[in-house]
Amino acid sequence: MTVAHFAGVNGIGDVGVDDLAAEVVERVGPMSPMKLQKLVYYAQAWHLARHGRPLFPDEIEAWRQGPVVRHLYDQHRRRYLVISWPSGNADRVTGRAAETVSWVIERYGGFTAHELSELTHTDLPWREARAGLAESARSNRSIRPELMREYYGCQHMTVPDAVADVVASTRLEGVELSGDALAELVEVASGRRSADDAVAAVIASHRGRR
After folding, report:
1. Alpha carbon distance 206, 171 (integer Å)
2. Nearest CA among 4, 72, 14 for reference residue 40
3. Residue 205: which residues within 8 A CB-CB, separation 6 or more?
4. Are 101 and 28 in contact (CB under 8 A)?
5. DSSP string covering 137-193, please?
6. Which one, 78, 85, 103, 182, has least CB within 10 Å?
7. Which of 13-27, 117-131, 182-196 bottoms out in mean pLDDT, i.e. has the lowest?
8. DSSP letters of 19-67?
């Protein structure tokens, strides 16, 4: 599904991706193309989570090194360092778009390109787009914007909101969570326990009841 399809309007987006790239480079300074691509990805992801609409209209593809906007890649390919982005105008990034960029740079700007790439590999939207592919396989599969909105939106929720969202989703599937399962959800949502540990605990609990 394209971003345009997801948004319901062709070319929807608060800014152009070239303008966004220019803004990121202007604020952060010279960086590798990989780091630029990952900051652009997180700007799109968190704008979707916060505002429910894309920051820019271009699709993001799930490449081996992480999310990539091909339009940007076509301009920076074979470059080792991005010093400026002449095809964009940072002055066009204003209002809530500028707020999103500021928040993303504050949160992710200190990471190296490699660290950002590894971080995107742990996130569900990239992993889902790469499902069934070998780690070294090339792919131009698109990362689904609706999944980006849901995944990062849940991270942005308060603990009660995140738990309520999961409970509502399971009820739609005809499943009622036990008190123990709800307690595990709260622990995960608050960051006090990993999801893997919580799943293992729930499985062990069910085995004990057989």
Report:
1. 19
2. 72
3. 180
4. no
5. ----PBPPHHHHHHHHHHHHS-HHHHHHHHHHHHHHTT----HHHHHHHHHHHTTSS
6. 78
7. 182-196
8. HHHHHHHHHH-SB-HHHHHHHHHHHHHHHHHHHSS-SSS---EEETTEE
pLDDT tier at 205, thresholds 50, 70, 90: low
**Alpha carbon distance 138, 73 (integer Å):** 15
Q: How far is CA 185 from the centre of its chain?
A: 22
| Six token digits for residue 189 | 């949502």
For residue 153, the cross-strand partners are none
The answer to whether the beta carbons of residues 148 and 44 sit under 8 Å apart is yes
Nearest to 18 by CA among 62, 65, 73: 73
Question: Does residue 12 contact residue 19 with C-beta atoms inside 8 Å?
Answer: no
DSSP state of 82: B
Q: Which pair of structure tokens corresponds to residue 145?
A: 């914007």
